[in-house]
Every structure is written in C-alpha cells, then in structure tokens.
Amino acid sequence: MDLKTKVQFIKGVGPKIAEKLDKLGVKTVQDLLFYFPRAYLDYTKITKIGDLESSDIRTRTLGEDQNQNITIKVKIINIANRSTRRRKFTITEAMVADESSSIKVVWFNQPYLAKMLSASRELILNGKISFDRFSGQLQMESPTRTNYPRIVAVYSETVGISSGFISRLISNSKFLIPNINEYLPEEMIRKNNLMGIQQAILTLHQPDNSASIKKARERMAFDELFLFLLQKQLLKNDIQLQQAPAMKIDQNFLQKFVASLPFELTAAQKKVSWKIIQDLAKNKPMNRLLNGDVGSGKTIVAAFAAAVAVKNGFRVALMAPTEILANQHYKTLSKIFKLHGASVGLVTAAETKKLSAISRQLSADILVGTQALLHLKEPIGDLGLVIIDEQHRFGVSQREALINSKFQGPDPKKITANNYQPTANFRPHYLSMTATPIPRTMSLVVFANLDVSVIDEMPKNRKKIITKVISPAARQKAYDFVEAEAKVGHQTFVICPLIEDKETIKSNLFDEDKKTVVKEAERLQREVFPNLRIAMLHGKLKSQEKEAIMTDFKAKKYDILVSTSVVEVGVDILSATVMMIEDAESFGLAQLHQFRGRVGRSNMQSHCLIFSSSNSENARRRLSYMEKISSGFELAEKDLQLRGPGQMYGYQQSGFWDFSFADIGDRIMIERATEAAKSIASVIDKYSELKKKVGEIRKHLE
C-alpha cells in the first residue's frame, strides 16, 4: 500500500464504504491523510464539579457561553434507564461524582449505556452543562466519554461513515505519513518557524496537547495562503512576459474629453484615471482592479481608459454580469462617446437574436455585453483593452476567454506606432471593476495577481442615505412615507429574497416565511398602495421583459419596483429615493450596502428602510451596523468578521477556494505568505516538490 492506493483496498473498507468516503472527497490514502479533523474534544482540561456549582453556570447556560463544553473526571454512583410516556423514548440517567461534588448526567435513546457503564466505573465526560429548572440542579446532557485524559480528533461525517471510523482508518494508514514529501523549501520553513509537513499531519490527527495543535494549524494555514498566493504570483509573472500595445497619451484629447463631461471629476477619479492611463502607455499588459464604493463613479474612469484605447485605433470589450447592467453601461458610454465620434455596440443574448443588427454592433469601437461576448463566432479583432465589471461574478475561464480573444491582423502602421511586435505573445490590457468593497486583508489575498486602485471619494452632490431598521410596529409609518415620496414624484425599490411563492419553488425549510417578489407585489398593490403603480422584476423574466420594465421605471411609469437581488449592481434611477429591504437578515452587509446604493444617485435625500423577520439578537446587531456605518469598506470589514470570505462574495467560482485553516483577517500571516510567494515565484524551477504541488493544485481547480 502507498499514498496513491485507493481507499477501498484499506483493510475494513471495500467498494461500498469507498463510495461513501468518496462523498467526503476521500479517494486515495493520501486524500485520507489530508482529511483533517473539523474539531477536537479535549479530555485533558478537567473541571471540578464543585467549581461548576460555585460559578455563574445558571446565567451562562442561558447566555452566549451556552455552547461551551466542560470536561469532568468522575466515578459513576448509579445509572439506570427510564422511558417517557409521550414520545416513547429512553432516557439514561446517571449520578456521577468527583472528590468535590456530584452531578446528574443524561443520555437520550442510548439504553445500552446502562449496562455498559456500571456503578463504580471511572471515566472522563465531555459535554454541555445546563440548569434543570425542575430539579433546581445542574446536569450534563449527552456527553462523549473516554477512559483516560487525551485529545480526540472529530471528523466531518456522512451517512454510514462515523468520525470514529475515519480515525481508525487514519491510525491504520499513518505509517505512510513519512512518504509525504516536504514541498516547502527548507529555508522557508526555518525563516517562518514552521512545523514540517509530516509532523503537522500526524499532530493534527493525533495531537499530544493543544499547543501542538496550534503549531500544526499554523503550518497548514501558512500552506493554504502561500500556495494560493504563489498561484497568483505565477500568473502575474506570466502576464508580464507577454506584450500589450503601448498606447500614446494625447494630453489635448484627454483635456477635451474631461471638458465634455456633464459633471466635475472628483480628486479620487482623477488620481485613479491617471494611474490607469500610465499603465496603458506601457508595452506590458495592464492588470488592474478598480475598486470603488457604490456610486463613486467607476464607469467614467473606465470610459477614460476606453477613450485612450479607441484614440490609438484599438477596440474595447466591456463585459457585465447582467443584461440590465450591460444595457446601462451601453447607454452611458453611448452618450459620452457620441461627442467624440466613437461607436458603441451592445452584445447580449437578446441583441444577438436581432440578426440584422448584430453585424453592425460587432463593428463598433467599444463592445458592451454580457457573457454573449464569449460566444461570438469570430474573435474580436484589434482588441486592445478588456474591461470586466464585477469580475467575481465570472469564472476564471470566462474572464480568460474574453482576454484571449485573438488580435486579428492589425494595420502595420498601428503596430509600429504602438511599439507592438507581431511575433510577440499578445495580451490586451485588462481592467476589472467592482463596487463590492473588499477588506484590505482579503484584497491582499484574492487580488494578489492584480494592481489595485481604490476610488475612496464620493461625488460632491451626493447626500448620505438615511438608513433605519424598521420595527414591525412602525411598518405602516414606513408605508405612509413611501406614499408621501410617490406624491412628489420619487420612486421606491422593494427587495425580496425569493421570486415565487414557497408552494411553487424548491425552498429551504428556513425560507418558508420569507417574502417573495410575486406575492409581495400583489399584496402591496391590493392592500397597501392601491393608488400607486407597481411593477416587479426578477431573474426568471425574459431579457426583453426586464429591459422594458427598467426602461419604464426609469421613465417614471411606475412608482414602486418590487425586485430580487437582480438590481444589486449597476441600476441608476435618479428619482429613486427609497430602498425597502424585506427579510434583510437573508443578505450579508456588503450586499445590503449594494442595495442601498441603488438610491441616493442624485442630490435628493434618500432613505434605506430595513425590515427583518428574525428574532435573533445576532441578526439584529448585524443589521444595526447598516444604521451606523455608511462606508462600504467599513461594512465589508464587519461582514468579513461575521460571515467569512466565502459567504461574502462567493469567490470559489473565481479561483478562490475555502480555507480550512487560514484566517483571511490575519494580516501578519498574509504578509509572511505574500513575501514568501513573491520570493519563490521566479525561481520555482529550483524546487521540484513545490512545483509538483502547484501542478496538483492547478489540476484540482481546473
């Protein structure tokens, strides 16, 4: 048996159990050894029963510490089973004691324990302590047990595969751990004071103490960050080996372009725009992320970059995640570039059906579209700049497919003028945009392959959006406010988490009471606002229907738009002054902030009214941050603390994987891993085991 041996050939497994292990991602012995515990039961930290009685356990069992496990070392005084009449199940009750006091222990539906655990038996129990109001005494419920002080690894289970079974399999396979080659360079391990990989793996499965677990987890956390960042750095290095057209910067043209805009640029927009223009002047591909809060003016900055590319004779492709956003970018850029003689085309699923129009669209200087841009029959010729909005909504392969659109037969004069050599490997300049505020530490990891620019200033005429969490008792007042706003020509968004009624969709059990767009739109029209004009918008509508609804809403043919998160980004309705969010606990803070950014797009005072059906104190506290914090970047930091990176942004689809050990908020560890990745990327060929490991990861992510 070796590391590549299929698990079904391990003693006691076989084909059927192997199928169950496969559901856990365990196919080989190596997979098994890298299947780490999700938690540990610590039977070494013994608490005296007498200390529990003298503590504030009665308060704590009702408060935030109620999930804390306690370990006690005891002798069984007596143990017996009793049956309940109503539910007909067995309760095993035992009285146990140590030298300080005694306590009752209960197990449910485990009658065999009464015979297994006889009186006078000594053992160690680990479980939660609760206060039984009927007896007025403390008790321990459903504890786990062991015979001697130790730390026990707990593994994630599946049907037919218990944590104990996995632990036994690993014990029978641990003799192969020495066959796992160290892939980190020796000097890197020494510099960062890390455990060796073999010792770390063995320690995580069979730890001696909590200190050794901490050290082993530190090694694995470093590995996760380092290997992820190394992938990013290698990609960055590869891009810099390619060529892009070095564009000439015409100062007079840029001044005229700025003068033609109907508003004054902020200092932040000017600073970021100049940085991007400097990138475009180089013959190495720009690879930059433009991060700006909702309404900070990223589209104009992108227009600057597009203007430079078009002025140099190159074409631009801008890809957006939704048709609504693509249509909005198309209209905005069409107005801007009409004054400069540049054409803008729209490529969406709906537009491509218009066969007479698509050829005209594809010849445009600037192509704006959705994923339909990836399915064109012919590559986009003379492509010098790719802009992708909300890049994390696209997969890595999708982004690369657009970036790698062929550079078809450029004019020889254009090649010479832009210092481009036709024999070189060409890559257009790349600009990514996101309105999703990214916490600083997360940005260092997720966007390590990009240069990051931040627009940290809002236009001068924007007023702070007044945000309130509305209690059920104040709901009618909120409706009265919406009606008053409608009378003066202002419009309202109403956001619901679901589309249809629970009877017609496959919903989560906890979604049964959530508001739906269809039902809420009907209710509001029938019961609340019979005199107002209400429309609804959601992802199941056809493209033409969505576009028509948004066009009519922008033309003020509706007073209220009830929608799902389809309006989360890019919708720009100047007369919308109220954002109502139903079941707000269903969304993260970053997403709520995106919704809030759909209003307040003009100099009119806007409001965000937040409703929640949750009784959770944590949910209420989380939503209260929306009232106190207006900065999307501050809210993103809170969201990261509360929910973690995966839930915040869903970065798995953009090459971001779930970290089991690494803390994305640990700036020191991130900086150490970043430094290591940068130092090793250019000389990785010297380290065969590391290069092999990187290859395995790439294959896994593909």
Topology summary:
Blueprint lengths: L13 H9 L6 H5 L5 E4 L6 H6 L2 H4 L8 E15 L6 E8 L4 E7 L4 H4 L5 E11 L4 E10 L4 E4 L8 H11 L12 H6 L5 H9 L4 H31 L10 H9 L7 H14 L6 E6 L5 H14 L3 E5 L3 H16 L5 E4 L1 H4 L2 H8 L3 E4 L13 E7 L6 H8 L8 H6 L11 E6 L5 H7 L4 E5 L10 E4 L5 H13 L3 E5 L21 H12 L5 E4 L5 H12 L5 E4 L12 E6 L7 H8 L10 E4 L6 H12 L3 H12 L1 H5 L17 H15 L6 H14 L1
Report a brief summary of the structure.
This protein has 702 residues and is of the alpha/beta class. It contains 27 helices and 20 strands.
Oligomeric assembly: single chain
Structure summary, number of beta strands: 20
**At the third CATH level, what is the topology name of the largest domain?**
Rossmann fold
Largest sheet: 7 strands, parallel
Describe this structure in words.
It contains 27 helices and 20 strands. The protein has 702 residues and is of the alpha/beta class. The chain has four domains: 1-43 and 161-176, DNA polymerase, domain 1, CATH 1.10.150; 45-149, Nucleic acid-binding proteins (OB fold (Dihydrolipoamide Acetyltransferase, E2P), Beta Barrel); 251-455, P-loop containing nucleotide triphosphate hydrolases (Rossmann fold), CATH 3.40.50.300; 466-629, P-loop containing nucleotide triphosphate hydrolases (Rossmann fold). Strands 10-11-9-12-13-8-14 form a seven-stranded parallel beta sheet, with helices on both faces. Helix 22 links the parallel strand 19 (576-581) and strand 20 (607-610). The model is unreliable at 59-66, 503-511 and 650-656 (pLDDT under 50).
